[in-house]
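Internal tracking record. Fields below are filled automatically when a chain is submitted to the structure queue. Please do not edit lines marked as system-generated. If the sequence contains nonstandard residues, flag them in the REMARKS field before resubmitting.
Queue: standard
Priority: normal
Entity type: single polypeptide chain
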Amino acid sequence: MKLSRIAKIASLALAFGLVLSATPAQATDLQGSGASFPALLIEGCKAGFANSTDHSYTYASSSSGTGQSNSDKSIGDFWMSDGAYTASTKRASLIHIPLVAAPIAILHNLPSKKTLNLSASTIAGIFGGSITMWNDPAIVADNNGTYDRITYKLDRNGNPVKDAQGSPVILKTRTMKARYTLPEKKIGVVYRSDSSGTTENFTNYLSKSAPSIWKKAKNKVFKDSFPGDINDMSNLGRVVGAASSTGVSQLAGKTRYSITYAEVNYATANKLKIANVVNSAGASVAPDSTGVGAFLASSTQNANGYLTYDYTTKEKGAYPLGIVSYLLADSKYPDAARAKAVKEYATYILSTKCSKDVGAALGFSVIDGELLKKSLAQVAKIG
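SYSTEM-GENERATED OUTPUT FOLLOWS
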């Protein structure tokens, strides 16, 4: 008899010694902080975690940089970061756990309801300042041609089923024609002004996918990765910053003909449209859980839990701006009861009760398969 998805999670958790206790010996109020990227999911799963464990938590959403800094100072009990924390100040007992998966979306404020297609080189040109008009030939070319759209065989969590070689199983490939008349308007670029793991991942994608345009290395601070002079007269008033995903999406929502990068779930509230990204295989892919699952399937993970993304993957349905947000936790908490509560928190966020039942509606992807096994193995190290 086949095990249900929940039963599989439970069996994996048991294998790593991770059990969600309905009546813990000591109820603990955990304090967390860090990346804004996973904040909606963490907040959405708060009640379910409390009901399942009798523990509770409070999460202060700000930025990955704040989470990393707070982990150095042991402010709180757990921390979230959208990028691997490798600074010299990181203590040896701090571990990384891929906890939340989702796409970084390109959000824009164009009046048309048509789907905007953007290639890596065009995105790099727009955010790097070399493309300043919506009717630039590069954007026109991206939106007047043909693209493949991929339909995968999906599992019950919405992730692509893999064949014996580990490749996602494609059910259908459709060729779509793109026809979009772009306005002769200046592009308003809105970037994250704070230290951000989202920005670090976004600039990493640009530097790896369009190195001839985005010539600087990734950075948590957008200004420090910007390939030109962000204070040049041509950028003043046109390229502007705002703190947090909430800040950039709200500013873009108020600014016609603007563009920014943030989580998918910020689009609706701010009346922004979501662009498709043209990947290395030449396919136009939407930022959804299926595309993220196909992209993460090509990533590799080291012993510390860090993922290395393959931005040049030729997997046709891969959305190349998929990321994971890491839980930073300690393998040597001074309080055993608090360590146990953090372990139960991580296990619950990874469970389908949170990642699927809550996360799907918010635009998050379910971590499953081999990546889930590796995440639970990391969780088991919390102590």
